[in-house]
């Protein structure tokens, strides 16, 4: 597949044509879902009314579109992109399609941190974000240290991560059961992962944090691709693997925890989006841009489905992503089981 070289000043970036075409198609799909999300609600608003609202026209219906629907639509796009990128980071690190934050316990660790902020501290947005990031980092550190004792490998990280996820889920349940009733009810509802009630006040800091993290990830995308092709090749091309891995873990945990702090743990987007993006792009490794854009499209589509399934009651988007992701995980496990005997029979 031919590639384009984009140059600006002394910087250059090599991009495959197929990746660019795929990115354009996914952006169009995301734009179509965004328009549908702005139109859909208890009362349908046509695209003409959406345009009037976004252009600043006064009026009650326009305020609903600008202040209620637009933050939710943007949150679906940005949070989905963050989860897709985080999933690509960890699947590249583990070289395993199951190596996503929600499988290896990082989502559960971020949720633990958020629960501590809710039950022990005041539960302000800043405290939730900081506690979620610290919880995710702590979970990542524990999983890595336990895997390090027997030699780090992708499969070992995933297996230990699954065990850590189960343990942290039990800890989270204990925290909820010990909390005050009001806090417990709020925590259980939030744990499903939801964009219901998201407004502009919730999004300023998370959007800024995610923008910085994704920019840092984009700057390291070439190194990520080289590392995904093998440690020897990466070292031969001058990549400092341990430093790169630390940077990627911090970026991936930051993206996951920031989303968790606002919307709760939204399951399976980080698991499915990177593999879908990889297959669509037909690229080596797990490409970051397709994974992020597929994640954005998946979360936007799941949120629309969550609003429509039991309308006028809006389900938490995590209910839909869990249902879809569960089917995907069963397919992935069956596929890996079929591949294992074949791989063992090869010399």
Topology:
Blueprint: E1 3-8, E2 11-16, H1 17-39, H2 47-54, H3 60-94, H4 106-119, H5 125-148, H6 154-178, H7 181-191, H8 200-219, H9 221-228, H10 231-236, H11 241-263, H12 269-281, H13 288-309, H14 317-345
Antiparallel strand pairs: 1-2
Structure report:
The chain crosses the membrane at residues 73-91, 103-122, 128-148, 155-177, 197-219, 248-273, 313-334. It is found in: Cell membrane. Pfam families: FecCD (PF01032). GO terms for molecular function: transmembrane transporter activity. One of its GO terms (cellular component) is plasma membrane. There is one protein chain. The protein has one domain: ABC transporter involved in vitamin B12 uptake, BtuC (Orthogonal Bundle), CATH 1.10.3470. The chain is built from 14 helices and two strands; from the N terminus they run ββαααααααααααααα. It has helices spanning 17-39, 47-54, 60-94, 106-119, 125-148, 154-178, 181-191, 200-219, 221-228, 231-236, 241-263, 269-281, 288-309, 317-345; strands at 3-8, 11-16. Helix 1 (17-39) runs antiparallel to helix 3 and helix 3 crosses helix 12. With 347 residues, the chain is mainly alpha-helical. The two termini are 30 Å apart. The chain has a two-stranded antiparallel ribbon. It is 75% helix and 3% strand. The protein is globular.
């Amino acid at each position: 597949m031919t590639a384009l070289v984009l140059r600006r000043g002394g910087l250059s970036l090599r991009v495959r044509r197929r990746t660019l075409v795929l990115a354009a198609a996914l952006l169009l799909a995301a734009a179509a879902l965004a328009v549908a999300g702005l139109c859909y609600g208890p009362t349908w608003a046509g695209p003409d009314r959406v345009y009037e609202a976004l252009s600043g026209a006064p009026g009650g219906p326009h305020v609903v579109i600008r202040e209620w629907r637009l933050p939710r639509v943007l949150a679906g796009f940005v949070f989905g992109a963050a989860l897709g990128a985080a999933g690509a980071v960890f699947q590249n690190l583990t070289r395993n399609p199951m190596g996503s934050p929600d499988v290896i316990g990082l989502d559960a660790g971020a949720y633990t941190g958020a629960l501590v902020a809710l039950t022990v501290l005041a539960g302000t947005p800043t405290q939730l974000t900081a506690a979620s990031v610290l919880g995710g980092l702590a979970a990542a550190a524990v999983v890595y240290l336990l895997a390090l004792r027997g030699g780090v490998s992708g499969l070992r990280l995933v297996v230990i991560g699954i065990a850590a996820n189960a343990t942290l889920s039990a800890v989270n349940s204990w925290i909820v059961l010990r909390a005050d009733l009001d806090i417990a009810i709020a925590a259980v509802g939030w744990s499903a992962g939801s964009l219901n009630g998201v407004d502009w006040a919730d999004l300023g800091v998370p959007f800024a944090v995610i923008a910085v993290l994704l920019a840092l990830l984009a700057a390291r995308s070439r190194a990520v691709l080289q590392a995904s092709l093998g440690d020897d090749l990466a070292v031969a091309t001058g990549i400092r693997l341990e430093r790169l891995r630390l940077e990627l873990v911090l970026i991936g945990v930051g993206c996951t925890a920031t989303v968790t702090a606002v919307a709760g743990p939204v399951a399976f987007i980080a698991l499915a989006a990177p593999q879908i993006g990889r297959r669509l792009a037909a690229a080596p490794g797990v490409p970051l841009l397709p994974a992020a854009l597929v994640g954005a499209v998946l979360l936007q589509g799941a949120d629309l489905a969550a609003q429509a399934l039991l309308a006028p009651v809006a389900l938490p988007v995590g209910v839909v992503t869990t249902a879809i992701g569960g089917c995907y995980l069963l397919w992935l496990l069956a596929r890996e089981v079929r591949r294992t005997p074949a791989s063992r029979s090869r010399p």
